[in-house]
TrEMBL record:
Protein name: 3-ketoacyl-ACP reductase
InterPro entries: NAD(P)-bd_dom_sf (IPR036291), Sc_DH/Rdtase_CS (IPR020904), SDR_fam (IPR002347)
The keyword Phosphoprotein is assigned to this record: no
GO molecular function: oxidoreductase activity
Length: 263
C-alpha cells in the first residue's frame, strides 16, 4: 500500500463528532464529510444543527446536552438507526468555563465546566467502545484537549484542570483498549481563531486589568510561530489520526498550537 493510500481515509467510515455544528466541531465534521465519511453530529444548538445538516447532505444529527448521560444515550440510539455502528468517536465538546481567581469561581461554574469538559468524555466513550469493538475499520477515539492540558493556566483553573484530566483519560484508555485494536489519542489545540477565543481574551483582559489589544499581543508573543491556529488545522489532524497512516499512533497528546511556550 502506498503512502498516499495510507493517508487517504476510507470512504464510508462512520464518524461521530460531538458539538459538531459550529467551531472546531463543524470544521472536523465538514472535513470527514468531504473525504467521504458517514458523519453524525450532536449539538445543543438546534438552529446550528439544522444549518449544518442543510449544508452537508447525508450528515445526520441529534440534539443533546453532552453533560446529561440520558441525552448521550439518545445520541447512540440515533446512531444505530442512522449508521448502524461506529468506527470513530471525536469527543470534541467542551466549554471555556469561568475566568477569575480561584476564590471568585462559583461552585456552579466549576461543576458545569467539569460536567461539559470531562464527564461528557466518559459518557460518550463508555457508549462508543462496544460499537468500536465491532468495527473492522481502524476504530479510534480522539478526545479534544487543549494546550492548557500541558501547561498551567492562571485564572482558568476549571478549564485547565479538565484538560489535564483528558490527557490522563486518553493515556489510560490507550493501554486498556490497545489489545482490542482501538486507538485513543488527544489533540491539544492552542489558541484557535474565532469568536470563542475572542471571548476568552476579553474575559482574561478584564480579569488582569489590561486592554484587549494588549492581551491579544500577549497571546501571540507566547506562540513560537506568532500566529493562532485555525479550526481547519485541528480538523486536518483529526482526519490524519483516523487514517491508516496513523495506525500505530495511540496514547498520544498531540499539540496543534504553533508551539505555545507558556500560558
Amino acid at each position: 500500500m502506498s503512502i498516499v493510500d495510507l493517508i487517504r481515509p476510507r470512504p464510508g467510515q462512520r464518524v461521530l463528532v460531538t458539538a459538531g455544528a459550529s467551531g472546531i466541531g463543524a470544521a472536523i465534521a465538514s472535513a470527514f464529510h468531504e473525504v467521504g465519511a458517514r458523519v453524525h453530529i450532536c449539538d445543543l444548538n438546534k438552529s446550528a444543527l439544522d444549518e449544518f445538516v442543510a449544508r452537508h447532505p447525508g450528515v445526520t444529527a441529534s440534539m443533546a446536552d453532552v453533560a446529561v448521560a440520558a441525552e448521550v444515550d439518545q445520541v447512540f440510539d440515533d446512531i444505530r438507526i442512522s449508521m448502524g455502528g461506529l468506527d470513530v468517536l471525536i469527543n470534541n465538546a467542551g466549554m471555556a468555563g469561568p475566568t477569575g481567581s480561584i476564590d471568585d469561581i462559583t461552585q456552579e461554574d466549576w461543576e458545569r465546566t467539569v460536567a461539559v469538559n470531562l464527564n461528557s468524555q466518559f459518557y460518550f466513550i463508555r457508549r462508543a467502545v462496544p460499537l468500536l469493538r465491532e468495527s473492522a475499520d481502524s476504530p479510534c477515539i480522539i478526545c479534544m484537549g487543549s494546550v492548557a492540558g500541558r501547561l498551567g493556566y492562571g485564572f482558568r483553573t476549571p478549564y485547565a484542570s479538565t484538560k489535564w484530566a483528558i490527557v490522563g483519560l486518553v493515556k489510560s484508555l490507550a493501554i486498556e483498549l490497545g489489545p482490542e485494536n482501538i486507538r485513543v489519542n488527544a489533540i491539544l489545540p492552542g489558541p484557535v481563531e474565532g469568536e470563542r477565543m475572542e471571548g476568552v481574551m476579553k474575559a482574561r483582559a478584564s480579569a488582569t486589568g489590561v486592554s484587549l489589544d494588549d492581551m491579544r499581543a500577549e497571546y501571540l508573543q507566547k506562540i513560537s510561530l506568532r500566529r493562532m491556529v485555525t479550526a481547519e488545522d485541528v480538523a486536518a489532524m483529526s482526519v490524519f489520526l483516523t487514517s491508516q497512516a496513523a495506525r500505530n499512533v495511540s496514547g498520544q497528546a498531540i499539540s496543534v498550537d504553533g508551539n505555545v511556550e507558556y500560558l
